Amino acid sequence: MKNRINELLEEVNRMAAANNEELEALRIKYLSKKGLISELFNDFRNVPNEEKRVVGQLLNELKNKTQDKISELKEAFANAAGSEQKTDLTRSAEPFKLGTRHPLSLTKNEIIDIFSRIGFTIAEGPEIEDDWHVFGALNFPPEHPARDMQDTFFIEQDPDILLRTHTSSVQSHVMTTQKPPIRMLFPGRVYRNEAISYRAHCFFHQIEGLYIDKNVSFADLKQALLYFAKEMFGEHTKIRLRPSYFPFTEPSAEMDISCNICGGEGCPFCKHTGWVEILGCGMVDPNVLENCGIDSSVYSGYAFGMGVERITNLKYQVKDLRMFSENDVRFLQQFESAY
Length: 339
Ligand code: PHE
Fold this sequence. Notes:
Elements: H1 2-14, H2 20-31, H3 36-43, H4 52-82, H5 103-116, E1 121-122, E2 128-130, H6 131-136, E3 154-156, E4 161-163, H7 168-177, E5 182-191, E6 203-213, H8 218-233, E7 239-246, E8 249-258, E9 275-284, H9 286-291, E10 300-307, H10 308-316, H11 329-332
Parallel strand pairs: 1-5
Antiparallel strand pairs: 2-4, 3-4, 5-6, 6-10, 7-8, 8-9, 9-10
Helix pairs in contact: 1-4, 2-4, 5-8, 5-10
Phenylalanine (PHE) binds at residues 166, 168, 208, 246, 249, 280-282, 303-305.
C-alpha cells in the first residue's frame, strides 16, 4: 500500500495537461468516486492496525497534493485564456464623437472675445444678492417697480436677499472694491419673475460692460458699441441709439442694430421697422459712482448690458427661448463652432 501511494505521489508531481479536457480526464482518473485515490481509501480497511496511522497520513497527503496540483493547472489555463488576444488591432478606430458647445456659450464667448480685443477683462458676481448691490447702489428709488415681488424673486425679506435681476449688480461689487481705470465685462445668469413663454423666461443671461476712467464720454460708448455691432453681425451693420431711462445711467439709451435678417428692409422679425433692439446703455450716473466710493468729479464712465439669448436669437434665428434650457440634443447638435 505504501509503495503504491508513493508511486502515485510521484505521478502527481509530474502531472501535466495540455488543455482543460486532459485536465478533466486526470481529475476523473485520480479524484472521482471510482478514481485511483478513492480505491486506495477503500483498501484502507485492510491495512493492519499498527500501520493505519502512517498510511492514513500518506493517503491524505496524496489526496491533498492531487487536489492542489489540479487546481494549480486549472488556474494556469484560466490565466492563459484571459490574456488571449481578443481585440482586432487591424480594425479602423471608432470615430470619437465630440459634443458641441451650448449656443448661449458660443454667443457669450464671442462677445467676450470681441470686447477683450479692446481691453475688457472679465469679472463675475454672485447670483444671490442683497438689495444694496442690485438696487440700492444703482440708484433705484425705494418705490421703484423692479423692487416689486412681481419682478424680483425674493429669498428672504428684512433684510432683503434676492436673485439678481440684472448683471449690473456686479458693477456695485467691482466699483466698491477696485479703483479706476476699470474696463470690464460681467457675464452671468439673471432671474426675473416672468411667466415662461417663447419670448420670456424666469432666468436668462446677460453680459454687462463697464468702463470707468477720467474723461470717458458718450462718444467712447458709441464707438465701442459700433465696433461691437460690426464685429458681431457684420461690417454692413448700422446702429442707432434711442433715448431711454435706467436709474443707474444718465443719459441712458437703448441701442438698435439694423435687422440682420432682412438687412434693414423690414421683415416680421423686426416688425417691419428694419431695426432690432439689442442692449441698454448709458453714462454711469454720478450718484452710482459716489455710492460706490468713486469721486464723480474726477471719474466718469459708461455701462451697457445685453441679453445673451437675444443676441443668440438674432445670430442663429432661434424663435423659441425655451429651447435654450430644454437640453434637446437635436437642437444642440446643430451648433458647432470654434468658440
Ligand atoms: N441692467 C439693464 C437691464 O437689465 C441693462 C443696462 C446695463 C442698461 C447697463 C444700462 C447700462 O435691462
